[in-house]
Amino acid sequence: MSIYGPYEQILSNILSLTTDRIKELNRQTVQDKQPKLYEHLIARVKTSESMAEKCQRKGYPVSTESALRKCRDAVGIRIICNFINDIDRCLCQLRQADWCEVIKEKDYITNAKPNGYRSYHVIIDEKVPYQDIEGNNPGHFY
Fold it and tell me: Which end of the chain offers a freer environment for a tag, N or C, measured as fewer CB atoms within 10 Å?
């Protein structure tokens, strides 16, 4: 059985919805005669096994609630930009979007990891047309 329980299919739907929303931000940017926001968009739903391992590693119960509320990365999207400035433009678009709220940021570009890893991580709380684990509809998913 999946750690995501009855939300497994919903996560796939959210992945598609979020990807489409980001593509629309890019389309609007290009339509406004601005350079595109990103070069590539890669998305995934974390496997149930990987999420269960993460819950154990973090000391959380291996449960649907932990997977969807404590780990906050069941759905992941990687936006690959051409230039550092494009990251700032993407962030600006996400911060202004009415369908999500940026709730956490980690800047590994300004503060690269010791191994040289450079990236910018964002966790968003997204409003979606699906019931969430607390029974809210529209629901909120990370």
Answer: N
Give me the pLDDT at residue 119, please: 95
- Could you tell me the pTM of the whole model? 0.92
**Non-local CB neighbours of 94 within 8 Å, separated by 6+ positions:** 25, 100, 102, 122, 124
Q: How far is CA 60 from the centre of its chain?
A: 20
Contacting residues for 55 by C-beta, under 8 A, at least 6 apart: 3, 61, 62, 63, 66, 67, 70, 71
Identify the structural domains of the chain with CATH numbers, from first to last: 5-141 (3.30.460.10)
25-57: pLDDT as tens digits: 999 999 999 999 999 999 999 999 999 999 999
pLDDT over threshold 90, residue 97: yes
Buried b (16+ CB within 10 A) or exposed e, 60-89: beeebebbbbebbebbeeebebeeeebbeb
139-141/120-128 β-pairing: antiparallel
Q: What are phi and psi of 102, to 5 degrees?
A: -75, 120
